[in-house]
Amino acid sequence: MSLQQTLSALKIAFESGNGPIVVPEWVHERMRRATSELIAAKVAEQALQPGDSMPSFRLTGADGAVLDSVDLLASGPLVISFYRGVWCPYCNIELKALQAMLPDIVERGAQLIAISPQTTANSRKSCRDNGLTFPILADPSNEVAARFGLRWTLPSYLREVYLQVFKNDLTVINGDNSWSLPMPARYVVNQEGTVVSSEVNPDYTQRPEPSDLLPVLEMLVQSANSCKVNYRA
Description:
Blueprint: H1 3-15, H2 25-40, E1 58-61, E2 66-68, H3 69-74, E3 78-82, H4 89-107, E4 111-116, H5 120-130, E5 136-138, H6 143-147, E6 151-153, H7 156-164, H8 170-173, E7 180-182, E8 185-189, E9 195-200, H9 213-232
Parallel strand pairs: 3-4, 4-5
Antiparallel strand pairs: 1-2, 1-5, 3-8, 6-7, 8-9
Helix pairs in contact: 1-4
């Protein structure tokens, strides 16, 4: 199955009461309400778009190393995945799908990183639980996500669901009191720091296919090779 088919199957199972956790209908209603409100607010339309310059950042990885976006871009194009956290089953499925695509990404001269607001300890858990070998970076208070236009604050009625039903206290998981999350997003940035591809969706159950990255990266490879030929000429 494709990534989206897998995610859709998970959503159907969860909403029909056949998933790993069964919750009352009022929980589903609140979750659908939050997604609908986020869509209606058109927050995704304010996020970085192709042609925009990527804001620079320095973030700590799961291994404790600090990675600088300037250094990352010096090595080639950058694929960035913003995700909600290790507690999100949709995010974990996507991370595993990206891991499976990692050799194809690297083969095209690009690097893959993922960014979430969770603490470094929870980033390490993401790596362990999902078998990840690419960097997972912690973004305290979603500051980098905000500069990408992705940060949003959970309404009080949804915080209640997270705390009482799912036992996900984001103040502990993320190490801050903002109760904010990034909209799931995937970016491709060229070596000049310009966004060439962006996929942002306020519906966290909808994610682009990892294979969609390959034509974009191929285009960057062809562009780089063309520049080299012109320079030699």
